[in-house]
């Protein structure tokens, strides 16, 4: 029986924050799936492939190997053995990842690599299709959400604290549009897995959410004799 946790949910629900904290508390490996897609973006950027060229994207996808390593407890992302962690947050990597991730062969390859990681170690993964596609047999599946208002409030506060000018209405509109796109995309749309536990964080603090996830996880471990 695996010990994996899958956390899905819309943008701005706090998935990554909760996943990282839960992983740390339970001694699991946090897998940043978004960083893995960015590594794939770097792969195609270096090839000089047109991200809209479906045939070229498919032709090279098996050449990319994205894996994770840890140095002093900090996740490192390796692309064909090269540490590309410092390159992941560039605009080029993000833009390319956003486009190439829409291609079926890329998503298939990434699911394969993510499943390989989960088969080797107990992991916590967050995303939009983890419980439904990537880890359908995860010991615990969580669908983490919050109202658009709460998610917009959080993002607005975050940007203000960074000293960036922003409009709450624009942020809320962007979140609504992102939700619609994620839920209606052709490949692996965002949806709650039938056996996922819904956790609405609208009126919860971070610690409360983490404690809820940990309690659910420990209950599942006990139920399956894995304590």
Report on the structure:
- With 227 residues, this protein is of the alpha/beta class.
- It has helices spanning 15-26, 33-47, 54-60, 91-100, 104-120, 130-134, 148-161, 168-184, 206-223, and strands spanning 5-8, 29-31, 66-71, 74-79, 82-83, 123-127, 140-145, 197-200.
- It folds into two domains: 1-28 and 123-227, P-loop containing nucleotide triphosphate hydrolases (Rossmann fold, 3-Layer(aba) Sandwich), CATH 3.40.50; 36-121, P-loop containing nucleotide triphosphate hydrolases (Rossmann fold), CATH 3.40.50.300.
- The strands form two sheets. Strands 2-6-1-7-8 form a five-stranded parallel β-sheet, with helices on both faces.
- A hairpin with a 2-residue loop joins strand 3 (66-71) and strand 4.
**Would you report the number of β strands?**
8
CATH architecture of the largest domain: 3-Layer(aba) Sandwich
CATH secondary-structure class of the largest domain: Alpha Beta
- The strands making up the biggest β-sheet line up spatially as 2-6-1-7-8
Order of helices and strands, N to C? EHEHHEEEHHEHEHHEH
Mind telling me the CATH superfamily name of the largest domain? P-loop containing nucleotide triphosphate hydrolases
Give the mean pLDDT.
92
Number of helices: 9
Largest sheet, in brief, is: 5 strands, parallel
Strand content: 15-25%
Low-pLDDT runs: none
Structural class by helix and strand composition: alpha/beta
Helix content: 40-55%
Gap from first CA to last CA? 12 Å
The CATH topology of the largest domain is what?
Rossmann fold
Structural domain count: 2
Nearest-angstrom radius of gyration?
A: 18 Å
Shape: globular
């Amino acid at each position: 029986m695996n010990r994996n946790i899958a956390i899905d949910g819309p943008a701005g629900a706090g998935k990554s924050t909760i996943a990282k904290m839960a992983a740390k508390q339970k001694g699991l490996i946090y897998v940043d799936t978004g960083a893995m897609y960015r590594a794939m973006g770097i792969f195609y950027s270096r090839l000089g492939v047109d991200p809209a060229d479906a045939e070229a994207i498919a032709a090279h996808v098996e050449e990319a190997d994205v894996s994770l390593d840890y140095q002093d407890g900090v996740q490192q992302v390796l692309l064909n053995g090269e540490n590309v962690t410092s390159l992941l947050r560039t605009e080029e990597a993000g833009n390319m990842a956003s486009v190439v991730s829409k291609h079926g062969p890329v998503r298939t390859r990434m699911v394969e690599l993510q499943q390989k990681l989960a088969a080797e170690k107990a992991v916590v993964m967050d995303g939009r299709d983890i419980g439904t596609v990537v880890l359908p047999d995860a010991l615990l599946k969580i669908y983490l959400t919050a109202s658009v208002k709460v998610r917009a409030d959080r993002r607005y506060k975050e940007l203000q604290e960074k000293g960036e000018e922003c409009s709450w209405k624009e942020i809320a509109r962007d979140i609504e549009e992102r939700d619609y796109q994620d839920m209606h995309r052709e490949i692996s749309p965002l949806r709650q897995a039938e056996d996922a536990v819904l956790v609405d964080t609208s009126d919860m603090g971070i610690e409360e959410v983490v404690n809820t996830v940990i309690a659910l996880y420990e209950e599942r471990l006990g139920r399956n004799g894995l304590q």
